[in-house]
Specification:
This protein is of the alpha+beta class. The chain is 41% helix and 30% strand. It has 4 domains: 5-130, Rossmann fold, CATH 3.40.50; 148-271, PAS domain (Beta-Lactamase); 277-379, Beta-Lactamase (2-Layer Sandwich), CATH 3.30.450.20; 394-518, PAS domain (Beta-Lactamase). The longest helix has 33 residues, at 114-146.
């Protein structure tokens, strides 16, 4: 993993803590660990450390695991929580899992279960987050479908209805409770429904292919009505999960081509609500490619119409910058080979200038060997421009620091981290890898008044929060005497200093000009 898994361990026995850490090292996991045993420490680390997972002993000096769960759930509702205890009754363990939503419990005398339990809990957490995102997207789709005048049906992979909109119920004259769980064809088709059309629909659906046809249906009261039917299979990670059917009543306008255009616009209206371009892209076994659907977003991204993109796929490939073309193709081939999510960022050159695009899609393999992606492509030009501006700003800042002989430092007492900029190391004439701390920094100040003064102002800053601004002398690693302006200030939390930061500027030349007597 690129980012470490932040694990917060609640444990009052340091020997058990070491055994847990030792077990964690056995797993191929990138982890960052914080430990505490008191409620106040636990609450503080939840806020500052922001753990991805909590391991907790059942009984602690000042509180227990149930109280820890309640504290954690206030701000992190779904955070994985595993009890690691020397002894916990089975009934109590079951109660905590069922009532308090603990993910698992591991006995300390069987720590071999710890790493599998962690992996399982993190996987479950990831799935929960994905489900929340999917639920949000489904709610938006439901909102669009609810307010359309066309009938919309969503079925599961078994073709059993799980959701319909009001327009569909009005069209067929059934009530919602009468259709949920049923196959639409079983109650909508009747004596005059064309058998060949029914067989063609069933054949395509059995192969998880989209359907578009006209078919005769019957209402609950037996009234005939013609519909134009569009069925779209929905895949997740290559697995069929739903069919979405859109029905347009064309009884009075069957021969009117305008209704066909309106239904096509309806299909597009769903995907065009997405802020970008929706693309159905196919890679065939012989290496050729094609597209069978492009949303209106292509107008904004490529400055061409959906019809132009469908008729000439090269209009989507030609604008790709030459230095990016191989990367785009390689990412598609890798996704097709391993059936993994395609996710790539590249540049195109259009009439309106250079644009950065980011595409993502999940592949599925058809029976004929064709790989198919339903992909979303977004314009991320502004995001890239912002990244470039930040990099340039940081570069200019570093350059300005070198010109001004001004460096900065940060000491984080809470995390035990010391940062010293390259300019400060140049001023002290030490190697770039030299490791500073407070005492090492003090020892560079000239012995006597300068060092004593520097020590005093630092102590005052850490104790009382008093900022300082001093002009003092240092002796560099190479024995050279320099005048520096040292500034510093602190930050406090709960009455205690946890951060000291400031700047150091070489003012030797300036000092010599103002007062030649101070020259070293």
């Amino acid at each position: 993993m690129d980012n470490p898994i932040r694990i917060l361990i609640l444990e009052d026995d340091l020997r058990d803590l070491e055994l847990i850490k030792r077990e964690l090292k056995k797993a191929d996991l990138n982890v960052e660990i914080e430990h505490c045993m008191l409620e106040q420490e636990f609450t503080r680390l939840l806020s500052s450390f922001k753990p991805n997972l909590i391991l907790s002993d059942h009984n602690l000096p000042s509180f227990n695991s149930q109280q820890a769960i309640e504290i954690a759930r206030r701000d992190f509702e779904d955070i994985p929580f595993i009890i690691v205890s020397g002894f916990i009754g089975e009934e109590e363990a079951v109660r905590l899992i069922v009532e308090e939503k603990v993910d698992d419990y591991v006995l300390k005398d069987n720590l071999l279960r710890l790493n599998p339990s962690i992996i399982r809990a993190l996987s479950t957490f990831k799935i929960k987050q994905e489900l929340k995102q999917k639920e949000f997207a489904l709610n938006r789709l439901s909102m669009v479908a609810t307010h359309t005048h066309s009938g919309v049906i969503i079925t599961n992979e078994k073709k059993e209805i799980v959701w319909v909109n009001k327009a569909f119920l009005k069209m067929c004259e059934y009530k919602e409770k009468e259709v949920i769980g049923k196959n639409p064809g079983h109650f909508l088709q009747g004596p005059k429904t064309d058998d060949e059309t029914v067989r063609a629909v069933r054949d395509k659906l059995s192969r998880n292919l989209p359907v578009k046809t006209n078919i005769l249906n019957y209402t609950k009261t037996g009234r005939e009505y013609w519909i134009q039917l569009d069925i779209i299979p929905i895949f997740e990670q290559g697995k069929l999960v739903n069919f979405i059917g859109i029905q347009e009543d064309i009884t009075d306008r069957l021969n009117n081509t305008r209704i066909i255009e309106e239904s096509e616009k309806l299909l597009q209206s769903i995907t065009n609500n997405v802020p970008g371009m929706v693309l159905r892209y196919l890679l065939h076994p012989d290496g050729t490619d094609s597209v069978k659907y492009v949303s209106d977003g292509v107008k904004y991204l490529y400055d061409i119409s959906p019809k132009e993109a469908l008729n000439d796929l090269s209009l989507l490939w030609k604008p790709v910058l030459p230095e990016d073309i191989s990367g785009v193709r390689d990412s598609i081939m890798h996704s097709a080979k391993h059936l993994t999510t395609w996710n790539y960022t590249w540049r195109i050159n259009t009439k309106t200038g250079i644009k950065w695009l980011r595409g993502a899609g999940t592949p599925s393999k058809n029976k004929d060997g064709t790989t198919e992606w339903s992909s979303l492509i977004l314009d991320v030009t502004k995001e890239k421009q912002y990244e470039t501006e930040i990099q340039e700003m940081n570069s200019r800042l570093m350059e300005a620091q070198h010109i001004a002989h001004l460096g900065d430092f940060l000491i984080d007492f809470e995390k035990d981290i010391t940062y010293v900029s390259p300019v400060i190391k140049e001023i002290h004439e030490v190697d770039p890898e030299y490791g500073f701390d407070i005492e090492k920094g003090l020892n560079f100040f000239k012995e006597g008044y300068d060092r004593d003064r520097k020590r005093k102002v630092i102590e005052e800053a850490i104790k009382n929060g008093t900022p300082y601004n001093e002009e003092l002398q240092i002796i560099t690693a190479k024995g050279n005497t320099r005048w520096v302006r040292s500034r510093g200030q602190t930050e406090f939390k709960d009455g205690k200093c946890f951060k000291l930061y400031g700047t150091l500027m070489d003012i030797t030349a300036e000092t010599e000009l103002k007062n030649p007597l101070k020259a070293p």
